[in-house]
Design goal:
With 727 residues, this protein is an alpha/beta fold. The strands form four sheets. It has a seven-stranded parallel beta sheet, sandwiched between helices. β15 and β16 form a beta hairpin. The radius of gyration is 27 Å and the shape is globular.
Length: 727
């Protein structure tokens, strides 16, 4: 099947209300339509679901989506039902349906109405379902949360390993496997188990710029710290993760008695209560859900503003997946983790009844998590490195470590000793073992290998173990050593590491010198905000009522960014409403009338002059010019030359660029800024806007100094700031 770019964009606009695809969505969708296997590695909030939802609506036949949780299926079916004007376009079959309901679903499938059918792997394995699906034309199979296939995946499900054989029984069709958390090892496992080693691999950046990461010490006052934090997030939805079910129940009670609307969620609760608590959270009837990881993949709420880990998670995959529930709409997302070494020991004790292989995997995953929690290095850099992605910026500016002050301490001698030790043990041991040798710890493992007899045994006994771990982590990040995943994390020397042993150079590690905790989360995450907060609040109330009436979560009606856009541009006609991001034809017809009525009344009552009323009716010309400017910037045309070619002054060009950026379009003018400003100047201006109350240019010039900075340069960096954090 062939489909043009224009046809795909038209379908995107019609069904989902968006004008452009995100990242590599279009390439993935095109690969599926062309009948090729696809492996999609995309962070939570990156738009994975669209990669199989849109092609299913376009292609002949029906797509089977294998999904792990009933709650997740229901959310996605509700959402799809609102995107399409046709009834029965999406269904699920699982244990929550009666026999009569299942038969009704099968009737829709056989009639050709249904384009997506969601099944749990357990349901796919049932003989009666296999026999039924054999008589249906399958367009493709989508395996969601595909990391469940891997033994290294944080939520392994044995039923996932049988998907390949089920697919062969039902009928061969292309497969798209999707996950938000996959290390190279997990990716290999997924492709091997699904028989799709030749699949086209699509990897999106794991970087979520809008998420703020922070780790705090877990003290005896942790409950007070948590209450204080949540009170500071008044009116914002959040999730608190705990390890144990009893802890979930107790903590939910603590929050409730402190005036916070919270409900518990864990697998040990009866299904009815668990479902009711989840629905209350989705319907915005409670602010906080306190949960075990059982809640991890069952949530599809885009406006979660904070995720707290009351206990350190078992793996960085799990941590990334869970923190990824925050800020899925691109708005504010604060990820706070409380850490105590005692929690690590508790998790290790949980593994005592497992096989040696499982213990080896579990300990390695725990070590990675502990390293993350104790590190002084940029949290974003560490996370991305773990998933095989290098973050090239020195500081992300949006994690606690990047907001602390450090001094660089020379560790060249200690690194040389550490690298020599790795060499002496034949590169067959993990970081913990190397630290034990250097520190002189007579552990059972050290003694069994006679490593207490090594020359370097106890060579760094006067150093803190955390310092030695920090040196090894830094060496990993700069490429002196690597970890062998097949041996559960044995350290291996790289070419650069061997060279450093022969000829040591400068090597520094950061040591914290101060911690201004009170200012830590000021401006923690950028969030798009409505121009009219009063109208935004009114629209949220309408959305909540509509959601209750239709028995769907509020975000299924319209997501926060759509409401924010409405409260900024004040649409009062259906055509204007269809220009709002995230508003497709079906949603506009189904829900739009009431929103338009209320906005129109609000505009009239408050005598508001709308942007649309002031717009000069030269749409075609302005649109053409805008397009030309954006295309020229994509080609990295010098802005001075671009202004001249358009018959404009540089000031007029800046006006045009600001109009483009402030309307929500992202452009990249970094290439030009680098030509006119040195890095220190860029950083100073950028930092000003990060900490300022508003982006007023006059205020900025007064603060930065007119003798030092040209207004044009400040405006350019302001544009970059808006593109980085606002668009």
């Amino acid at each position: 099947m062939e489909v043009t770019h224009e046809e795909l964009v038209k379908a995107l606009q019609n069904y989902f209300g968006f004008d452009t695809f995100k990242g590599n969505q279009e390439a993935i969708i095109r690969n599926v339509i062309e009948g090729k296997d696809s492996f999609v590695l995309m962070p939570t909030g990156g738009g994975k679901s669209l990669c199989f939802q849109l092609p299913s609506l376009i292609m002949e036949g029906m797509a089977i989506v294998i999904s792990p949780l009933i709650a997740l299926m229901k959310n996605q079916v509700d959402a799809m039902s609102n995107y399409s004007e046709e009834e029965g376009v999406a269904h699920f079959i699982n244990s929550s349906l009666s026999r009569g309901e299942i038969n009704a679903v099968k009737e829709d499938v056989l009639s050709g109405k249904t384009k997506l059918l969601y099944l749990a792997p357990e349901s796919l394995n049932k003989g009666e379902n296999v026999d039924f699906l054999k008589g249906v034309k399958i367009s493709f199979y989508a395996v969601d949360e595909a990391h469940c296939i891997s033994e290294w995946g944080h939520d392994f499900r044995p039923e996932y390993s049988q998907i390949r054989s089920m697919v062969q029984r039902i009928g061969k069709a292309p497969i798209i496997a999707l996950t938000a958390t996959a290390t190279p090892k997990v990716q290999k496992d997924i492709q091997k188990n699904l028989g799709m080693m030749e699949a086209t691999v699509f990897k999106s950046s794991f970087n979520r710029p809008n998420l703020y990461y922070e780790v705090r010490p877990k003290t005896s006052e942790v409950d007070k710290d948590l209450v204080r934090f949540i009170r500071g997030m008044e009116g914002k939805s959040g999730i608190v993760y705990c390890l144990a079910r009893k802890e979930v129940e107790d903590l939910a009670e603590v929050l409730k008695v402190n005036g916070i609307s919270a409900r518990p969620y864990h697998a040990g609760m009866d299904a009815q209560t668990r479902s009711a608590n989840q629905d209350a959270f989705l319907m915005e009837e409670c602010q906080v859900i306190v949960a075990t990881i059982a809640f991890g993949m069952g949530i599809d709420k885009p406006d979660v503003r904070f995720v707290v880990h009351y206990d350190i998670p078992k793996s960085l995959e799990g941590y990334y997946q869970e923190t990824g529930r925050a800020g899925r709409d691109g708005g504010e997302g604060i990820c706070l983790c409380f850490y105590s070494p005692d929690d690590i020991e508790r998790l290790r004790r949980f593994q005592k009844d497992k096989t040696p292989k499982e213990i080896g995997i579990g300990n390695q995953l725990l070590f990675e998590t502990q390293s993350y929690a104790e590190s002084t290095i940029c949290r974003r850099k560490l996370l991305l490195h773990y998933f095989g992605e290098e973050y090239t910026e020195e500081k992300c500016g949006n994690c606690d470590n990047c907001r602390k002050t450090y001094k660089q301490v020379d560790a060249s001698e200690l690194l040389q000793i550490a690298l020599e030790t790795i060499q002496q043990v034949n590169e067959k041991h993990r970081a913990e073992h190397i630290v034990d040798i250097l520190h002189g710890n007579q552990t059972a493992e050290v003694m069994s290998y006679h490593h207490d007899e090594l020359e370097n045994f106890g060579a760094a006994s006067d150093e803190e173990e955390s310092t030695l771990h920090a040196i090894l982590r830094q060496a990993l990040l700069v490429g002196m050593i690597t970890k062998d995943v097949d041996s559960y994390g044995d350290l291996k020397l790289t070419k650069d590491g061997k060279k450093f042993i022969r000829k040591p150079g400068k090597f520094e590690v950061p040591i914290e010198v101060q911690n201004d905790e009170d200012d830590m989360m000021d401006g923690a995450a950028a969030t798009c905000a409505a121009a009219d907060e009063v109208l935004f609040s009114i629209l949220k109330d309408i959305r909540r009522k509509q959601a209750k009436k239709n028995d769907v979560p509020p975000f299924v009606i319209f997501q926060d960014p759509s409401l924010e856009a409405m409260a900024t541009t004040y649409p009062i006609t259906m055509d204007e409403l269809l220009t709002i991001p995230g508003v497709g034809v079906a949603k506009a017809k189904r829900y739009g009338d009431e929103f338009l009525r209320v906005i129109k009344e609000y505009v009239e009552e408050n005598e508001i002059i709308r942007p649309e009323d002031m717009r000069i009716r030269t749409v075609a010309k302005r649109s053409t010019r805008k397009k030309q400017i954006i295309q020229a910037i994509d080609r990295r045309v010098d802005l001075d030359d671009l202004a001249e070619s358009c018959g404009m002054s540089m000031e007029e060009m800046l006006d045009e660029l600001e109009a483009i950026v402030f309307s929500g379009t992202k452009i990249n003018i970094n290439y030009f800024i680098k030509e006119v400003l040195d890095p220190d100047e860029q950083e100073e201006i950028y930092d000003y806007f990060k900490n300022a109350d508003d982006d007023n240019i006059q205020k900025a010039m007064a603060e930065l100094g007119e003798d030092y900075y040209d207004e044009m340069h400040v405006r350019l960096v302001r544009l970059k700031f808006h593109c980085d954090l606002g668009n």
